[in-house]
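Throughout our pipeline, every protein is held as a single compact record rather than as scattered files. The record that follows is passed on verbatim for readers who wish to inspect the format.
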Amino acid sequence: QLVEKFASGISMVTSLALAVSYPTLAAAPHMFINAYKNALAIAVATEYTFPQAEKVKEYLKDPSKFAVASVAAVSADAGGGAPAAAKVEEKEESDEEDYGGDFGLF
């Protein structure tokens, strides 16, 4: 019970620090990830690029190329073709539902 209250307090401090853009040890990873997402969004929307954005731009140009590669990798590991492809398709659908099109925290 004490651990739950402590975790709740840390969560509140982190939320407050993120809301006011005050860097704390608990909020720093979230701030870096949010900054990376913002830089990636700028790179996708403009001609600006950096090495980490190349893979995302390549995926946006031709998503089917990545889907085929993941199906081949899963089927090679599992040893079966059709069941593995069905599993990958189910995963993709659940990922889309989880994101809901909103990539920000607030």
In short: DSSP finds five helices and no strands in the chain.
